[in-house]
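DATA SHEET
Item: assembly model
Revision: 1
Owner: S.N.
Input lines:
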Amino acid sequence: MNLLVILPILIPLAAGALSLLGRHSQRVQGALAVIGSIALVISAVALLLATWEQGHIVSELGSWPAPFGIVLVSDLLAAIMVLLSAVTGAATAFYSLGTISIAHRKAGYFPLMHLLLAGVNGAFLTGDIFNLYVWFEVMLVASFSLLILGGERAQMEGAVKYVTLNLVSSALFLSAIGLLYGLVGTLNMADIAVKLGEVDTGMTTVIAMLFMVAFGIKAAAFPFFFWLPASYHTPQVAVSALFAGLLTKVGVYALFRVFTLIFGMDDPLIHQVLLWGAGLTMVTGVLGAAAQFEFRRILSFHIVSQIGYMMMGLALASVSVLALAGGIFYIIHHIIVKANLFFVSGLVYRLRGSYELKQLGGQYRDKPWLALLFLIPALSLAGMPPLSGFFGKFIVIRGGVEAGAWALVAAALVVGLLTLYSMTKIWAEVFWKAAPEPAAAPASGSNTLLYATVAGLALITVAIGVAAQPVLVLAMATAEQLLDPTRYITAVLGGAP
Amino acid sequence: MTRDRRLPPPDRNALRTQSLILRTTGFFLLPLLLLFALFLLLRGHNAPGGGFIAGLVASAAIAVHLFAMSEAGARRVLRVDPRDLIAWGLILALAAGVIGLFSGQPFLTAHWLTVSLPVFGELKLGSPLLFDLGVFLVVLGTASTIIINLAEQDT
């Protein structure tokens, strides 16, 4: 069992190291990207199946017993997130093979991509709060480099904002860990959960708020989301897609983990802050998107607004299990759909040479299949039945109704409608209206691999919609597991508190 | 006659500094710092030291050599591309961690091999040393990559 938990970290790390060693050969790098990402998907599926059977899988690194050593813990939430990161990673690897130029490859694109995945998976699997910080940093360092790869002016501008705000977030995170350690004298998350129940000071709320701000910045929640639309439209589109799918969701994951395991939701302040944060994140994100006329910027603002739905699920967790399950369902749906929309924008760019809606058009006449491939994730994002987004929204809102949070329910419904408006805008401008002028010549090279990637992800979206019931069963089981932290604690500390 | 690789090349304009003092100290500091790095690396298991700090000291040696001589000279001392050092270091560290997995134990579990030597007595070789060596190479590789690239941009 030790092997299964470490593999999702080990595979991308090894692939990254080997890819760095073989950086002079395009063939080696490509082979490693394909083999590494497929192996990662297989190991993630195996991990999810094993976790489903056993509940929690714990591995004590270096055989140092918890709570003294670092533990890796796979529960259902962690295993689901690892699988999603593996799928997004694989899609990005295939897409990159068709889009990343030789110059970028020579600058170390593929090793960085592998290392980013290792950091993300490490953050999902660790059971130690300081180790979580370390994995965050691994992920951020790789993302900084990926963001500025190529060194264009716009990239630098976006990267300055991205790096600054993320460093602020890291500093807050680290301070919060320091204060927490001073309070309870342990870094193991399960142990913290036990010991924090025994101390009773106002300090707990302060630390909880610090964590919320730190993770809120990473998750791009209101009012800390400005770095995201300022930077996500600047790098290579494969990088945008990987970031859009995964990075903010690591922040959301950390919120889910910390505010179910360590800090209970019974504190009314935490509950209120999360509720307001969720509502305002949804609304500001979608309004920001309405004002944009650049393909990737619209999509970036929609990441922000969708984060709101996930936070809504978490905020209502103490009142309704269904809402938390809805939040988890939403994460599953969102990662796949959002990465896919960015991939589509990249395809349009390759065909037309622009991301500006004004300069695009006529795509439906030229490539009706591409239009269909856009419609599936776009309508899913807006929440049209029978696609995955409908069920995600439906379950979250149903949870909201159960909890009686009417204002938030209303906000969620209106935001859904406005999302549809944004997607219709892209549809009308990029696909429907006549092409404004003879467009730039399409980029050279075959796009078959790119279409295959986009189609694959669209298929997953449809599958989540069709098989909504089993996915909901999984999400419900995950939510129940999260709401019963004693199971996690017993699994890590072995019964002896 | 073959010239020592660490001596300054005959073309004095290719050097970063005209200072005789820096060049001379640099010449002596390089082996001393590298020995010190090795000492720190081996000492690290039970006392302060270890792969990370040893890697920093070794890259300081490279940096001193770079400033005393030239970028090309620093590359010659390393003999391999510093980025290869990063890759090999990562592979070594991962390999050290994987050893434990083969016997069904968690990742990074330490394993020891006791070797009897005629003069020194018993020598315990363990996977933590391998891990430290990996860290050493990663740190040396990363720091040297940064230093050498910055210096090459500068000229």
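QC remark: Residues 267-492 of chain A form one domain.
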